Each structure stands twice: as C-alpha cells, then as structure tokens.
Amino acid sequence: MDADPTTSTAAAPLLLDRALPDFRFTRLECVMIDAAPPVVYEATRDLDLLTIQSPLFDLVMWARGVPDRLRRRPLPAPTTMRVADLFDAADKHEQDQPWVALGETPERELAFGAVGKVWRPAIEWHRIEPQAFAGFEEPGWAKMAAAFTVHPYGTRRSLLAYEARTACTDPESTARFGRYWTLVSPGVGIVLRAALQSVKAAAETRPGPGRAGSAKR
Predict the structure, then answer these.
(1) How many angstroms separate the CA atoms of 95 and 116, rounded?
(2) Contacts of 163 (CB under 8 A, 6+ apart)
(3) How many beta carbons lie within 10 A of that of residue 81, not counting itself?
(4) Which residues contact residue 143 at a Cβ distance below 8 angstroms, ignoring those fewer than 6 apart?
(5) Mind listing the pLDDT tens digit for each residue in 8-39?
C-alpha cells in the first residue's frame, strides 16, 4: 500500500517556516549521506563547529574576537561549540549568547536564530527569547534563522539540508544587510558546506545499524 503523501515527514511544515516564513536573503546547501535519518540527526546534534575544517570558518572565528582584542579584553576560549548544547541548554542561555533554539523536531529538524546588526564592524546583537523571535519587528535589525533538516532518501540514505535565512525589519536595514550579504554570501556557502561534510563524515563512520554501508558485505 502506497504511503499517503499528505502525512509523510517530507511534506510536514518546517520549524524554519514557522520561525521566519518571509525572508529576503537565503543560502541553502545539501549533501547526500549514506546513513539513515536517525543516525544523521544524531551526528548533526553532535556537530562541534570548532572542528569544521574550513579556512574561512577559522577566519570568521578570528574576526569575531577583533573588537575585544582592540579593547584589550580577555578573550574567552571555548573548548566546544556543539549544536546540541544550544538545544539542551535552551532554558538557561548565557546572556552573551545571541543564538537561541527556535525548535527541534526529533530525527528531522533543528532550528535556531539570532537578531543583530551584522553589517557593523563590531556586530551588535539583540538578545531575544525564542518565543519572541517570529513576531520581532523593531526597526533597524536583521532577523537570522537557520536549520539543519534531515530528509529520508530511499530506505537507508538521507539528504541533509542546511539553510540560512535573513529578513530585516525596515528598508534601511534591508539595504545595509544587502550590501553586506553581497560580500559574505559566497563565504557563508563555504561554511555551510563544510558543516555538512563534517556531519556526513561522522554519520558514515558510525558503527551499527542505520548506515547504508552496514548492509554491504
């Protein structure tokens, strides 16, 4: 008996659509992974952004600390930046952490977001609670939402998507972000693809059931 497409996981609404349904700027990258969705999802949750092998990501992390170095402030030295930490500690965010968990659908989607003026040399963040993100409309800001979404592909493989969306709250901030996006969009694509490749490598080397290769002898 064929599955009803109206009730399939692939047709279900995205948390990302609920958080930021209308947007002006976006970047979407995908990768095919030889592992079942539950395996890919757990590998995504375990992703440590500090382990991504990308010169651009290293540059981004270095650039984030420039204002503090100029002010001779001590720089924090995080040991990890795991995706799971954002969601597992959703009820106790640090006040200087701009990114918030916007929702999680187990084995399918992890959505997160932030509000800021990223076009400034020293980014100005606006701390916001997750439940206030979708309705935030204060002029002068960029609302950024992103999500990892796992789609089944056949019976033993998965398609993992990583999408970043941005909507600004007034025409002036839209114009400013547009100029900024023209410069950084290619680099954002590199970082997104590097993250996906890290998840792919982790998922495809995990032992046990749920991997396409585990059926091969």
Answers:
(1) 14
(2) 16, 26, 27, 28, 29, 146, 147, 149
(3) 15
(4) 20, 113, 115, 133, 136, 166, 167, 168, 169
(5) 555 678 999 999 999 999 999 999 999 999 99
Q: How many angstroms separate the CA atoms of 144 and 152, rounded?
A: 26
Task: Give Cα 110 distance to the centre of its chain.
Answer: 8
Span 51-82, pLDDT tens digits: 775 444 444 444 444 444 445 555 454 556 78
Half-sphere exposure of 121 (CA within 13 A, CB side): 4
Q: Using an 8 Å Cβ cutoff, are 19 and 102 in contact?
A: yes
| DSSP, res 152 | E
Q: How many CB atoms lie within 10 A of CB 175?
A: 12
pTM (2 d.p.): 0.80
Contact predicate 109/13, CB 8 Å: no
As beta bridge partners, residue 147 has: 111, 163
Q: Please give the Cα distance from 67 to 171 (Å, whole number).
A: 27
**Which class for 141: exposed (0-12), middle (13-18), buried (19 or more C-beta within 10 A)?**
buried
Angle at 141 between CA 55 and CA 119, to 5 degrees: 35
